[in-house]
Amino acid sequence: MNVRLASYNVHKCVGLDRLRIPERVIAVVNALDADIVALQEVDLRLPPRPTALPYALIEQETDFGILPFALDGPSLGWHGQTILVRKGISVDKIRRIALPGLEPRGAILAEISSRAGPYRVVGVHLGLIRRYRSMQLAAIRAAIGRRGEMPTAILGDYNDWTARGGAEALGPGFRLHAPGRSYPAAGPIGALDRIALSDGLHMSRAGVFGGTPARVASDHLPIWADIRIETAR
Question: What CATH number is attached to the domain comprising 147?
């Protein structure tokens, strides 16, 4: 069984022209043709952190459901993140994972049913300091370890300019992939947006989406990956 995963830091829907136009972000999300999309920076920074990407726009203009990571208030997600899931895909559980660091950070987790068996998707937006990124990945690895073995993809904005991307903190069971340069959108030089895959998930294709209007809609370009889920035996 195959599934397309994608990740997109939408920069609070503010494009490189300094205009906040959520409709451009939605056009990019639709163009990805993904089954599951991890989004970062979907909410404004200051309390009560209202959403920058309106609920109604997602509901009216896409075929995605919004997983309920937001706590009380007007936010779309948790720590600025959410996961969109194509309608018809069955989500069994969601969880929030608090992460260490100088600034508040968190990861979001969804466990999903498929014909090939269950798999897990974790959305991340890691910190700017290397030491804390390593601690955050280690915390994610510990959290999913407590939930039991399941094929897992950890995708999002890793905020890391190095080739390894801090993947050693995830342990030997994960393979980190950088589909390509995704930042800054107008002329990408850094592969900040990545995906780590555990055993049971195999990448067949991956890339960076640079079509219209992605090069102006946010300061990041989205990444995508076609994943084969190994059939449970």
Answer: 3.60.10.10
d(C-alpha 186, C-alpha 184), whole Å: 6
For 12, other C-beta atoms within 10 Å of its C-beta total 20
Six-digit token pair at 200?
């049971």
51 contact partners, CB below 8 Å, separation of at least 6: 42, 43, 44, 74, 75, 76, 77
Our count of domains for the chain comes to 1
pLDDT tens track for 200-212: 999 999 999 999 8
182: left (phi over 0), alpha (psi -120 to 50) or beta: alpha
Extended beta strands in the chain, E state? 2-9, 36-40, 64-66, 82-86, 90-99, 105-113, 119-125, 152-157, 174-177, 193-198, 201-208, 223-229
Question: pLDDT tens across 169-200, in order?
Answer: 898 899 999 999 999 999 999 999 999 999 99
What residue numbers bound the domain in which 29 lies?
2-229
The helix/strand/coil state of 173 is: coil
Backbone angles phi, psi at 111, to 5 degrees: -105, 125
Residue 58 backbone phi and psi in degrees, to 5: -65, -45
